[in-house]
Design brief:
Blueprint (H helix, E strand, L loop, with lengths): L2 H11 L4 E5 L5 H7 L5 E4 L3 H15 L3 E5 L3 H4 L2 H9 L4 E7 L15 H4 L6 E4 L6 H13 L5 E7 H4 L25 H13 L3 E5 L1 H5 L3 H11 L3 E3 L14 E3 L7 H8 L3 E5 L5 H4 L10 E6 L13 E4 L2 H15 L6 H13 L13 H12 L4 E5 L3 H9 L8 E2 L10 H11 L4 E7 H4 L5 H8 L4 E5 L5 H10 L15 H7 L13 H10 L2
Parallel strand pairs: 1-2, 1-3, 3-4, 4-6, 5-6, 7-8, 7-10, 8-9, 10-11, 11-12, 13-14, 13-15, 15-16
Helix pairs in contact: 1-2, 1-7, 3-5, 3-18, 9-14, 11-14, 12-15, 16-17, 16-23
């Protein structure tokens, strides 16, 4: 078969059901071959969003998302999406077209060094020279993306490689890489040390991140929390890893988090951190963060342990396996719950200091809007995605997730334009779910052309647009820290978003009267 056929056969062997992409001359052989496959192709309107959509599939299903784009500007347009996935540890395979191997390094038309450009933001990258190695490389890429700490992998394929004739096809039964051996099982001595420390702690707190979702460890996390009755705080990327209707779940800490979550961390004597990296938006000034707390840090990536906060007990391993081992020992020991006074004190802070806003009758408030969305979707199979900005933080605060992988947001990179294409990807991965993207008018205008994509692909995502004609988060910082000098954060030329939606064959509605909001949202959610 030709090289491009071999690539498609490999994707089929890996169980890939959807590829997001945008064709061009250098990637034409791939798009020609995929016509003979059952793999669905979704034509995205700009390549960055192909990567975001692939990320949406991966975040929802746990399996690597796949996108395919052409060389030069098509490939470089994916860089932001690749970086977004890398920062949040999302498995993804990015297939890029490239000029012929004979033209590499000659500044040929639409040539770009994708392996060099993406080196800091991928787990690995390939520039394929030998067509016969295509099956091996695709299998390796998929394996690397999805194992250990997940992340994106780039396969850059020159045109002559994808058009090569008589390529022998044999998909490898297994992948063995001598230089890549993630540690899954935690060191038994470190696990025992963690158990002893947990059993002795008086004011412990569990700090759970996206690694819980990556390793499908939500059940093990819940077991640990309930066995010892330890409160749990979750990072933005970890949101949904712990049921938020559980009384032990305190929600998100940090500069946009709850007072209870921050008080629990700050006053703890032990932080059990798992699958998280002590990001600056959570810790603030590290020297003043949880000064009296010891740290048990569990992560599959040894580079994260001790990177930002020193770990007294480091445990390198997969969150699911390490938590299972800890739980097994705790149950053997018949470990007793922590001091009820500690839990009661944190719970009192939560009751006395909930997220709060002054309710008004003369304006639609974003907090109220998100509360309504939460109420109207709580009994439905709902997946939320967000763009980036103030609306993202309100969504994290007021939407309550009770099942894993139901809140998708760009955390590490904070990428405006992520949420809508990610919603398209999530809907492709979970076609029977209700998928709602919460967006601001700044973020949505970075990707609004994907309304055409959703319509063409038959992807019934819904967008809740909080339109304040302002670049809200930056405007807020200018208000607080730049003497109210609002430089380039007020929009005076926003379109009529309803007419724009209708132009893209969407249902659209606009509400400005608070008394009409609930009815409008019910109609919106009922649209097929």
């Amino acid at each position: 078969m030709i090289g491009a056929d071999a690539i498609i056969k490999c994707l089929e062997a890996e169980g890939v059901s959807t590829v997001f992409g945008y064709p061009g001359v250098a990637i034409c052989p791939f798009f020609n071959s995929i016509l003979d496959s059952d793999i669905k192709t979704v034509l995205i309107r700009t390549e960055q969003n192909a990567a975001h959509a692939a990320s949406g599939v991966a975040r929802m299903t746990g399996r690597p998302g796949v996108c395919a784009v052409t060389s030069g500007p098509g490939a470089t347009n994916t860089v932001t999406g690749i970086s977004t996935a890398y920062m949040d540890s999302i498995p993804m395979v990015v297939i890029t077209g490239q000029v012929a191997t004979s033209s590499l390094g000659s500044d040929a038309f639409q040539e770009s060094d994708m392996t060099g450009i993406t080196m800091p933001i991928v787990k690995h990258s390939y520039l394929v020279h030998d067509p016969e190695k295509l099956p091996e490389i695709v299998a390796e890429a998929y394996y690397i993306a999805s194992t250990g700490r997940p992340g994106p992998v780039v396969i850059d394929i020159p045109g002559n490689v994808s058009k090569a004739q008589n390529v022998p096809y044999h998909f490898p039964d297994e992948v063995k890489l001598e230089s890549y051996k993630p540690t899954y099982k935690g060191n038994s001595k470190q696990v025992k040390s963690a158990v002893r420390t947990l059993e002795k702690a008086e004011r412990p707190i569990i700090y759970a991140g996206g690694g819980i979702l990556s390793s499908n460890a939500s059940a093990e996390l819940l077991d640990l929390a309930e066995t010892l009755q330890i409160p749990v705080v979750v990072s933005l990327i970890g949101k949904s890893c712990m049921p938020e209707d559980n009384p032990l779940c305190l929600g998100m800490p940090g500069m946009h988090g709850s007072r209870a979550a921050n008080a629990a961390l700050q006053n703890s004597d032990l932080i059990f951190a798992v699958g998280t990296r002590f990001a600056d938006r959570v810790t603030g000034r590290l020297s003043a963060f949880a000064p009296d707390a010891k740290v048990i840090h569990v992560d599959i990536d040894p580079a994260e342990i001790g990177k930002n906060r020193n770990a007294d007990i480091p445990v390198v391993g997969d969150a699911k396996l390490v938590l299972a081992a800890i739980n097994e020992q705790l149950h053997k020991d018949q470990a007793q719950p922590v001091d009820a006074e500690w839990v009661a004190k944190i719970d009192e802070i939560r009751r006395e200091s909930p997220f709060y806003y002054e309710k008004r009758d003369d304006a639609i408030q974003p907090e109220y809007t998100l509360e309504l969305l939460d109420k109207l979707t709580k009994d439905r199979d709902t997946i939320f995605t967000t763009e980036v900005g103030q609306h993202q933080m309100w969504a994290a605060q007021y939407l309550h997730c009770t099942r894993p992988r139901t809140f998708l947001s760009s955390g590490g990179a904070g990428t405006m334009g992520f949420g809508f294409p990610a919603a398209i990807g999530a809907q492709e991965g979970c076609p029977n779910s209700l998928v709602v993207c919460v967006a601001g008018d700044g973020s949505l205008q970075m990707n609004i052309q994907e309304m055409a994509t959703a319509y063409e692909a038959g992807t019934p995502v819904k967008v809740l647009l909080l339109n304040n004609s302002t670049l809200g988060m930056v405007h807020q910082w200018q208000d607080l820290f730049y003497n109210k000098r609002y430089s380039q954060t007020v929009f005076t030329g926003n379109p009529d978003f309803v007419k724009l939606a209708e132009a893209y064959h969407w249902y659209g509605d606009s509400v400005s009267d608070p008394s009409q909001l609930e009815g409008a949202m019910e109609r919106w959610l009922s649209q097929e």
